[in-house]
Write the structure tokens for this entry.
Amino acid sequence: MLALWMPSSNIPDDGLLGNVPHVDKLVHFTIFAVLAFLVSAIDKSNDKQSAFQSVLIVSLIAFSYSAILETGQLWVDGRSFDSLDLIVNLLGCIAGSLFYNKVT
């Protein structure tokens, strides 16, 4: 998550995935899928809600955090707001919370 606040010139490029197009979107998706999965795991009200309600609430919480981080990049040199990142983050949030509900 710290990399979301760092200037892009400070993020190491090991060349391993540097040539893969849109690899940053895969990273965004994965980070927020894991976040939503973990938020689902600590959501104590999960037992009292339908799966739909649980996915909706967790996704909104994780996506709100995503929106704050993405908007905050407007004030960080070398970073910029990207609406496509927000969409991918939301998809990751939904996927992570759905996955949690599927495996538990």
